[in-house]
Amino acid sequence: MAASLKEKKPNSRPSAPRAPSAPRDPSTPRVPRVIVVGAGIIGLTTALRLAEAGFDVTVLEQENGACEGTSHANAGQLLYDRIGAMGSPEFLFGVPKILFDSSQGILVWGLANPAKWPWALAFLRQCTNRAWQNNTKKLLEIAHRSRAGMSALNKRHSIEFDWRKPGKIYLYSTPKELEAAQGPLQFQSQFGGRDQLLSAGECIEHEPALKATSRKIAGGVLVPDAEVGDCNKFGRALGDILVEKLGARIKYGVKVLRLVQGQNRVEALETSQGLLEAELFVLATGTMTGKFLGARFEGKMPITGVKGISVTFPAGPVAPNCSVADTAKKIIMLGLGDRVRVTGYGIFSDKTDIRQQHVRLLIDKARALMPNAANFDQPQEIWAGLRPTTPNDLPMIERAGYQNLYVNAGHGSLGWTLALGSAEILLDKIMIEFGRDLPPEN
After folding, report:
1. Is the dihedral of CA 357, 362, 368, 372 positive or negative?
2. How many domains does one find in the chain?
3. Looking at the domain assignment, is residue 384 inside a domain?
């Protein structure tokens, strides 16, 4: 059942998104040309805000459609208040267990590659409580800008993407685990948002699909303002808006081979379709960002891939209403229209290959959690994507060495949640440098 997103008054006071400009008059002087590399959710939201600000935007994508990579079949959550950085003391204390128990769903052996050691060492330095709090606070600031941006976007364009605001329930299998979750929640609550402690019975009352569960539930936490939707549908709609309403261009099936450098500037991109010139370039290239930047990437927070796997099924007789996270089994289940999606795994890897044992385990966990939620014998889609992750879990939204090259990458598992806020932050930075070249009305 599709629904368009309705405006929600934020709990914090994020910076107001810039108002979009009027459509460009072809007779006005030439405006700066921008090439955005990547038509995932980060690239598309970046392109949208740049086009609305008055830039002449072209998006390049090596796939044959929008949101066909990491954004294609992700967990489908928009969670603006109860998010946190991956690196934490709890993660560090859990490493011995996940090293020898693959059923945990977090596989770190990919970090044994010497090329990954700098990332791993930098990540370990982020696993203190102080670092977790600092990184989480910054993530929440971006998320709050995203919420304001999403509300403003929906006022301008009605987008159908199976959006709902059913809330999210975090399930805990022991009283000890439930108690341990209170510390992070108390910290996050300083920055707005709501949560509610639930007994096992109240968890089932809020989510009837849990009534037949074989999982042990000690209690849970309800985050009532959590939203769900189809990121792929949302991204494809943004692509249509860019082309049909804002006059931007999206070129699919175009592979960027290298940056053509000038005097501390990027002059053009060498692509599979020849040289493409512009005044400004933005890399929204996820895990491929380091490849494009080369030596310019040194000294910046490196990005590694953390593979997630999802399986999407036809909805069953008792499909979930809420988004439900089984914290012990490390899976998320939610309903998307007439489908149910289960998402799990955090595999440190640069490959999107899918092992059948991982799929079977994911389905078994989902079936145990909500036996009647979906037709588990008929999966519609099995997908894997690489979450581009920095050691501190904060995205890179900045100039990348050259005067006219910017990066918007490294959003980890929170790409959709952070997308519009990140686009606003990048637009602010670009306007300082390039805004004077826009027509006065912009």
Report:
1. negative
2. 1
3. yes
pTM for the structure as a whole: 0.91
Q: What is the dihedral of CA 343, 345, 350, 353, to 10 degrees?
A: -70
pLDDT values of the chain reduced to their tens digit, one per residue, 442 residues? 333 333 333 333 344 454 454 454 555 557 899 999 999 999 999 999 999 999 999 999 999 999 999 999 999 999 999 999 999 999 999 888 888 787 888 999 999 999 999 999 999 999 999 999 999 999 999 999 999 999 999 999 989 999 999 999 999 999 999 999 999 999 999 999 999 999 999 999 999 999 999 999 999 999 999 999 999 999 999 999 999 999 999 999 999 999 999 888 999 999 999 999 999 999 999 999 988 887 665 556 689 999 999 999 999 999 999 999 999 999 999 999 999 999 999 999 999 999 999 999 999 999 999 999 999 999 999 999 999 999 999 999 999 888 999 999 999 999 999 999 999 999 999 998 887 666 665 5
For residue 50, the one-letter residue type is L
CATH classification at residue 81: 3.50.50.60
**Is 6 part of a structural domain of the chain?**
no
In the three-class reduction of DSSP (H, G, I as helix; E, B as strand; rest coil), residue 120 is classed as helix
Which one, of 434, 389, 424, 440, lies nearest residue 145 by Cα? 424
Strand 56-61 to 249-252 pairing: parallel
Query: Is residue 18 a part of any domain in this protein?
Result: no
- Residues 421, 79: Cα–Cα separation, whole Å: 13
Determine how many CB atoms are found less than 10 A away from the CB of residue 436: 8
Neighbours of 429 (CB within 10 A): 14
Closest CA to 53 of 10, 23, 29, 84: 23
User: Position 298: which residue type?
Assistant: E
* Contact (CB, 8 A) for 326 and 344: no
Domain that holds residue 115: 33-437
Question: Is 279 within a domain?
Answer: yes
Helix, strand, coil % over all residues of the chain, rounded to 5: 35, 25, 40
Within 10 Å of residue 398's Cβ, how many Cβ atoms?
13
Helix (H, G, I), strand (E, B) or coil at 193: coil
Give the separation between CA 233 and CA 68, rounded to whole angstroms. Answer: 11
H-assigned helices in 77-174: 89-99, 117-124, 129-156
Give the span between the Cα atoms of 370 and 441, in whole angstroms: 54
